[in-house]
Fold this sequence. Notes:
The protein is of the alpha+beta class. The chain has three helices and five strands; from the N terminus they run αβααββββ. Helix 2 packs antiparallel against helix 3. The longest helix is centred in the middle third of the chain and has 26 residues, at 81-106. It starts with a helix and ends in a 25-residue tail after the last strand.
Amino acid sequence: MTMNLRLPVLSSVLLAAVLAGCATSSPDVVRRDDAQRQSVVYDAVLLSIRDVKIDGSQSGIGAATGAVVGGIAGSTVGGGRGSDVAAVLGAIAGAAVANTIERANTTEAGEELLLQFSNGERRTIVQGKGQDQLRPGDAVVVIQTGTRFRVVKAPARAPAVVPAPAPAHTPPPASVGR
């Protein structure tokens, strides 16, 4: 590959990797369209955690970019009919390589959380690892926004406010000058 062709190929692959790396399922990241929306919050207890790998996305951006770059690179090989064949093969190879890069860059470490809700019901939720170090037995809250759920540690509960005792009843002062 010539030097003047390496730069566009490298920059296109890097661009595809950066664009593909924007997706996450971390409980610490809230989607823009979920901001300023009311969510439903459920109390639960974390029963168990299992590490999982969340499969990467394949948006098609990487494959399309790879196909274009591969096609252009392939068309510079040979001449005439051979150049056309090289362009097609380059597009196919470029799409496959860039698609693999996109998928690898969007794969993330996750957790499968087994939860027991206050009504006794059990459910699992898979999410990306967040900042909270969750442990079995932790009190958690499940936040539902639309069809998406995330699990975070429950905030520490404030002690119950006990009303101050009523002041002792004292008889009114005796009138002066009786």
